[in-house]
Amino acid sequence: MPISTIAVLGAGAMGSGICEAAAVAGLRVISIEKAQPQREAARERILASVKKGIERKKLTIASPDEVLSRIDWQPDVAAASAADFVIEAVSENESLKRALFVQLGQICRPEVVLASNTSSISITKLGAASGRPDRVVGMHFFNPVPVMKPVEVVRGLETSDAVVAATVELAKRMGKTALVVRDAPGFAVNRILMPMINEAIFALEEGVAEASAIDELMKLGCNHPMGPLELADFVGLDVCLAIMDVLFTQIGDPKFRAATLLRRKVDAGHLGRKTGRGFYEYPAK
User: Fold this and answer.
1) Whose CA, among 3, 122, 238, 251, lies 20 to 30 Å from 190?
2) Of all residues in the chain, what percent carry a pLDDT higher than 70?
């Protein structure tokens, strides 16, 4: 199935990163974001990222304008009707995503693939909401998208082989390494990663060690580039909590119960780097 134009719903860190990776790869992109400030912020993020890539000789394009010229900024989901492939990258909220997939199933051409960048929500559920479950797939990118290579291609219960193959091929065009997983709570990466982060939060909560000591020990002892608490701040504590709640609800094993400290941090609005405060503090630049 030929893909020349993709639509990306949501222009946050993940959505703008997906737009950038697709535009750098030469695809036409329709970025759909209702809020104008978010659209403007996404454009600035992409501009800065591409400039840096050119300066560091990671990109061979002539200028950032070449990338930005391939992106069409739109406020309404109806703009997705012009795309050959749609990637939803809104907040990790099941109700919001399901409502969007209902809309996309109605406005997009029957052959168009509908993908979700969800990190934990059931692709099978989103497929059922769309009315075209064989055309719905997971396409889980990692942050920061322009830098991180892997993409989890998630096969829902009714996702067709052709759709999986087309999604793998699109990820490769975007310079990514696509690995296929089945639709299970947390998929592969977050099924393993989030309980580790959650256990680090339990250790902090119980006074086993200070945050900096936990992180430094994991970096030195396990050769991790980031400690688990630093990584939680980078991902967003609200996202970590949402994934843990999905794991606990869908699997039912108490080992997936979110740490109370994680929930309290989210309640307080201390979500990590994006709010300037999480397990660490991040002074405004």
Assistant:
1) 3
2) 99
